[in-house]
Amino acid sequence: MVDGVPLPVGGPKPRTMIALLAVNRRRAVPSEALADAVWDNDAPDAYASSLQVFVSNLRKTLRNAGVDAQAILATASPGYKLHIDDGECDLGRFEAARAAGTKAAEAGDAAAAAKHFAAALAEWSGKALSDLRGLQFADDFAAAVEEERLLTVSARIDADLACGRASAVVGELIALTGEFPLREPLWGQLITALYLSNRQAEALDACRRVRAILAEELGIDPSPALVQLEQQVLRQEPLVPGSIGQAERLAKAMSETVGEMPNAVRRGRLRVEDGRTVAIPADGLRIGRMTDNDLELDDPKVSRYHAQIKPSPAGLLIRDLQSANGVFLRGHQIDGGALLGNGDAIRIGSTTMVFEETSR
Questions:
Q1: Secondary-structure class of domain 268-357 per CATH
Q2: Phi-psi sector, 355: left (phi>0), alpha (psi -120 to 50), beta
Q3: In this predicted model, what pLDDT tens digit does every residue of 79-102 receive, in sequence order?
Q4: Could you say which of 3.40.50.1000, 1.25.40.10, 3.30.565.10, 3.40.50.1980 is the CATH number of the domain covering 90-254?
Q5: Considering the entire predicted model, what is its pTM?
Q6: How is the chain split into domains, by residue range?
Q7: pLDDT, tens digit, for every residue of 261-270?
Q8: Selection from 138, 217, 216, 226 nearest residue 190 by Cα
Q9: Predicted confidence (pLDDT) per residue in 131-172, tens digit
Q10: Which of 48, 113, 185, 347 has the most neighbouring CB atoms within 10 Å?
Q11: CA 293/CA 277 separation, integer angstroms
């Protein structure tokens, strides 16, 4: 888009190329990575010349719009680089506003934090890269950035609660806990919002419901923080909004951009609590109860094909394969997929494992 006017960039392949370059704006993206994304990991032998054609056509479109095409879409070893500011990209604006919200929250300015987080969320207009869904790059990126959006929603609700707007967020939290019933921090926020809205009976009912859901779905009890919150409601004690999971959410909100390729985790292994160490192959690793999985878990709470760890342009991504009991990363259930970082704890069924990055 130039001066508010959308530019035609062609079909799915050039759109995929420009999307990956935009995600990694101002950083050189290797031609091989571009080819993997554009041809969905099945690039032809002559992909380099095809990429050159796409770049030539994109530069022609930019020149016709009156801009310096070579400066914006540059050849940069070992591939290409897109020179655009964060303010010229919805993802960049989202990340900048979210970072400002995190900084304000850490400084204790809840009103400013709520404003910045709301501005970040206003950049969303649907699923990320929805016009490219079905391509691994697009699906993996969408899953990763959706997790960032949910964390920002939760952080904004924390700020709203701290500003005394408990009643205003109750409806939103009821919808969120219905959509993500295994995310305990959302239940903590709902219980807090109900209690601060003088709806103690409903807050206690929410405590009972989350306890029943966790027992039925996972066979576990609520976390100590959620149990403590329930006791505070029962004793009618004062509550500090945002006490459930805020520190973890804000720390996660400061993590690297999901598409930041230079720092992406490329290789790793799993240390399983039973002593096994499982290296993650270059083509990924599948986890489940069936014997043909790469990592077999003999556990009735584990689905036949439960989860998969696979490489993506953003790094190693763990995905829930529509399992019955979900995949938990850093204590929270993932929605679709999430990027792995060194030291991350993963729980699948009754089994806990730790992801360790290995040398690249």
A1: mainly beta
A2: beta
A3: 999 999 988 889 999 999 999 999
A4: 1.25.40.10
A5: 0.68
A6: 12-84, 90-254, 268-357
A7: 434 567 899 9
A8: 226
A9: 898 888 888 888 878 888 888 999 999 999 999 999 999 999
A10: 113
A11: 15
Is a pLDDT exceeding 50 seen at residue 255?
A: no
Structure tokens that stand for 329 in this block: 């990363």
Residue 274 in tokens = 């039973």
Q: Which pLDDT band, with edges at 50, 70 and 90, does 220 fall under?
A: confident
Biggest CA–CA distance in the chain, Å, is 70
